[in-house]
Amino acid sequence: MTDSTVELKSQLCLNGKYIIQHTLGVGGFGITYAAYDMEAKRNCAVKELFPQGIVTRMMDGMNVAVVSTDKQETFEHSKERFLEEAEILQSLNPVKEVVSVYDFFMENGTCYFVMEYLEGVTLRKLVKMSGNGLPYDVVMDTVRKLGHALVIVHQHNFFHRDISPDNIIVTGNGEVKLIDFGNAKTLSQDANQKLSVVLKPGFAPLEQYSLHGKQGTYTDVYSLACTIYYMMTAKKIPDALDRTKGKAYQKLKEFGYPAFVSDTIDKALMIKYTERIQTVSTFLKCLGLADDQNIPKDQKAWLTKYVHKVPEPQLSAAKRYIQILQVGKAEVKYDLPDNKGITIGRVAQFCDIVVEGDPHISKKHCEVIYDAKGRRFLVLDQSSNGLYINGQKLPHGQPVMIKPGQLIMLGSNSSGFKVGEKV
């Protein structure tokens, strides 16, 4: 419930052109309104700086004043931060996945900025609606969009510092929007400069708990990994401070997700930032999302499924296969389910498919997955002796797209496999 005594009234005009319609939300630092821009003739959202406990609304129902003189300095600092957020967002307007800011101004003794009006739900709400986490293909497509947006944000010399399911909006037409840059900082911070301790437990890395913690792109990598984990499992990673005391999280591979995804998330969640994946671009590459040209852009189907509660269609039996080929042995085909990693190796304890009699094959040689959303086969080398296509060794530890019917050799010329579609 909102407090109507502090909110601006409907039909009030700001900056001579923004007509307040109704309140969208009241937070600890501000109030957001649905509004109409009379000049541009479009709906918009107006965010008003209104830090609770610091200011109050005057009797005229418009002007804002501090509750006491000792709060004035804090309020002035809040204004600086608020306008800084508006400037950051406006500079990022070309980034489709970042909420656009059209205007910002000072009025009524406080500050405002005007944003695009988003019709959708937060990622947190979407996950809660799903029950036990979102489908793998939905998560990967969302991460691809967010990740590529963050790469551009970092190229603009900013890092977000508050990535979480609450700050990601999924709109009705399938767009993903990153919001709330109020905690963002430039990457060129002075080494001795203090950074404010503002964080969300379960999504913030250890370095954010200290005024002197060294923060950077790897800070956003940690928070993005926590968000991915939440999308997949509907569970939060333990608080970073609790993790330093031994509290652990359940690995994604234990939920049935591909090992390479689980291992990549683990690397992105390292407590010490120096041991963590350092950039979002590297993170995406490890997840197999660096090349997005093969992934369809239309997200209306899954949004309809979750937002409008259309019953989820039942999955059919596996339509793809892995074919094992060995010199002197009969060919054997195995089912390859959608979005599930299948491991190949020589020790049953570690593998789904065991290839015997070849010493060049590792205990756990590789993992194969069919990405149903991207309609592509991927392979991840986890071996000592490597994977080869036409004599060329594939990169170790990175997912590589392979074609149906293409022969992949398992460390030697004696054993290999192909993937394909069932007729």
Describe this structure in words.
This protein is an alpha+beta fold and 423 residues long. The chain has 8 helices and 24 strands. The strands form 6 sheets. It has a 6-stranded antiparallel β-sheet, with helices on one face. Strands 15-14-24-23-20-21 form a 6-stranded antiparallel β-sheet, with no helix packed on it. The chain is elongated.
Query: Span between N and C termini?
Result: 57 Å
Instruction: Specify the number of helices.
Output: 8
Helix content: 10-25%
Rounded mean pLDDT is 83
Report the sheet-strand fraction: 25-35%
Strand order of the largest sheet: 1-2-3-4-8-7
Shape: elongated
**In terms of per-residue confidence, which ranges show pLDDT below 50 for 5 or more consecutive residues?**
184-197, 292-316
Biggest sheet features: 6 strands, antiparallel
User: How many strand segments?
Assistant: 24
Rg over alpha carbons: 25 Å
Q: What would you call the structural class? A: alpha+beta
Question: What is the secondary structure topology, with strand pairs?
Answer:
Layout: E1 13-14, E2 18-26, E3 30-37, E4 42-49, E5 55-57, E6 64-66, H1 72-91, E7 101-107, E8 110-116, E9 120-122, H2 123-130, H3 136-155, E10 158-159, E11 168-171, E12 176-178, E13 185-186, H4 217-233, H5 240-244, H6 259-268, H7 280-286, H8 300-307, E14 320-326, E15 332-336, E16 342-345, E17 353-354, E18 366-371, E19 376-381, E20 387-389, E21 392-393, E22 399-402, E23 408-410, E24 415-421
Parallel strand pairs: 16-17
Antiparallel strand pairs: 1-2, 2-3, 3-4, 4-8, 5-6, 7-8, 9-11, 10-13, 11-12, 14-15, 14-24, 16-18, 18-19, 19-22, 20-21, 20-23, 23-24
Helix pairs in contact: 3-4, 3-7
